[in-house]
Amino acid sequence: MAVTLDDGGVLVWDLRGSGGPVLRGPLPGLDGAVRDLVFFAGGEVMAVTLDDGGVLVWDLRGSGGPVLREPLPGLDGAVQNFEFSADGEVMAVTPANGETLVWDLSGSGPPRLLSGLDGTVWDWKFSADGQAMAVRLADGGALVWDLRGSGVPVLRGPLPGLDGTVEDWEFSADGQVLAGRLDDGGAFVWDLRGSGVPVLRGPLPGLDDTVWDWEFSADGEVLAVRLDDEGGEPADGGGLVWDLSGSGPPRPLPGLDGTVRGWEFSADGEVLAVQLGDDTLRWWDLSGPGSPTSSRPLAGHTGTVRDWEFSSNEDTLITGSDDGSVRLWKMK
User: Cα dihedral sign for 68, 74, 77, 83?
Assistant: First the structure.
């Protein structure tokens, strides 16, 4: 817990254990009024932005007083935004001038500007597990770093095959696959497994509209995309689903022969339910090592299926329809 005081100081307490809160001490090195403070990395790192635009970082690991890391080099101007990786060892900051800087905070030495970064940063994204980071450059290129291990982040290299500016991207949950949407509406997928340069799996086939949003299955082997209606809204009945298993190019999900109105993955990522443009619903088993296998369309409703939900044990799909009925479908 952190408390800001009227005199500009900040105190930090440790709330772990069953006893009373333990005062870790004031934050050392503060020389300006605090504008905002944020905890990261499970409470082990703390960052403070000051009214004068500066940013200070403290290491709260251990049981002693907070340790002030050295000032972030290269920072000139008030900060608009900042974010840490999940382990608190990489920090990205956007000053008011829009030129994002990224620092490697691993180890106990001074922060270091991320190695290999040789262009102005447009934005960045950490994978959900904090093991990878992608940076989009102002010139349209994109770079990826491996953040695994305790050493300096390793530049995996630029994303190969890019022939347009990356507008949006998404990591799979395990950080092993990266999908990127280009300004021309196209989309590509890269494989980040291993330690070398990202491998271009290829453009997503059949994509001739702008991507509205997308979602990976838990294992990163299925990607579902909803398309834009060109008016800034998701298209009615516009969507595609790809099978990314194996090492070849993405393939349309087997058995999917219509447009997609919506989808939902089960919480364990082993089942995907898809509503097609003709209002039928079917599901795919994603649990095996090979290509997903499809069910027949779920027959029984006499009206449009409006909603569906997986049971908590993931073995039943519940559907609700315009015909006023609710049906339960056993999947496992």
Answer: negative
